[in-house]
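Input/output pair, single chain:
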Amino acid sequence: MLLLGYDVGSSSVKASLVEVESGKCVASVFYPKQEAPIISLKNGWAEQDPLMWWENLKAATADVLAQAGRNDVAAIGISYQMHGLVCVDRDLKPLRPSIIWCDSRAVPYGEAALSAIGQTRCLEHMLNSPGNFTAAKLAWVKENEPELYSRIYKIMLPGDFIAMKLTGEICTTVGGLSEGIFWDFKENRVSEDVLSHFGFDSSLIPEIKPTFSDQGRLMASVAEELGLNPGIPVTYRAGDQPNNALSLNVFEPGEIASTAGTSGVVYGVNGNVNYDPQSRVNSFAHVNHSADQTRIGVLLCINGTGILNSWVRRNIVPEGVSYSQMNDIASAVPVGCEGISVLPFGNGAERMLGNREPGCQISGLNFNRHSWKHLVRAAQEGIVFSFKYGIGVMEQMGMEVSRIHAGMANMFLSPIFRETLAGVTGAVIELYDTDGAAGAAKGAGIGAGIYKDNKEAFANLQKLDVIEPAPDCSRYLEAYGIWKEKLEKSI
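Output:
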């Protein structure tokens, strides 16, 4: 018996099949093979045609079933790009392209709402700031496309749209509403403040169903088109970052899911409805949040991470040196790089720094002592220290960070990065072989009751490595202290 997971991203749609009994991914594909186009008619705009996602999903499904050579799918799960807006009419057809996660046109609308509702009230009720989330995007449509707005039957997130195409039913989740800044965590309902401020009718909001539940059944006509059996239930959906955490078996307070590609993400689970007064992080309902069990996903994004490492390779390291060789060379440089510190913030304004943009800065460089090898290590240490600084924000919110889960990819391939992160945070790092689509498949297994809980679903999750903090972390902490002092002087 198989579980089918979809990960609907802005670059591609990935489909994975997981075998229930073994917990192993037996087939995985993505479409298109080249990055999907993003429509940008003006600076700061980013749109995609929802029907493009659907066509890519159909292609991925055909391929993944052919690869597996079987179609005994018991349940379907969906992960999707967060914060997007899809508007459909009464015939369930999209009225316009989706305004996706990286579109920033609605920021002024969100900022105005923050001011009108009140920053303290917004943060206490966990209505995140700034405003390029789904609610503010809908406000932009209401003001700038009033005729189209008048024809909207329901609004959806990208995952809601895909589920609708599969089942013919429109519903959403508390997690989805929270990422759109529609959910009031104090009142445990759709935010009256947000609806009232923007003048939205509550009828635009779909029916709310639990994250793990029967959310509709595969229609016969769609099943025939996809090569699947009719009546398969869709039993899980979540935004990509909460789903990435699920994929890494991160469910409980104190656990962290992290990625470190071009930019970096730290996503931690908080057991209390707390907030950062400076709004340096965003908070959403985690996949296992409920009225009876508080599980808040606290999301920290750092723009300047792996992009610094790649810049160093392109511009500083001798030609032909690989990332693996860079790591080997840098490992000969002592912790703290003999006085060099690198602030890695050269990829735009940083939310965790109060939307300041200090840029990438190198300090302590001595022409007689240091070589490019010191810069290679200092860059990686600077990236790690930015993670530590952001985790400090989470700790100020009452979170205890004891364990970091990550996939074996990008910066986590570097022993220097891993060891420094463990040393400076004191957390155990666990590296796994998984991805978002496989995670969504296992989420479907939980939602369908095939697995009784996440422990059973992820019992066979392949752990590739465990990095324990060094017995003596004083060198890492000393280097971080110097780095932090230089950062705070720059901002």
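Residues 372-396 form the longest helix (25 residues). The mean pLDDT is 95.
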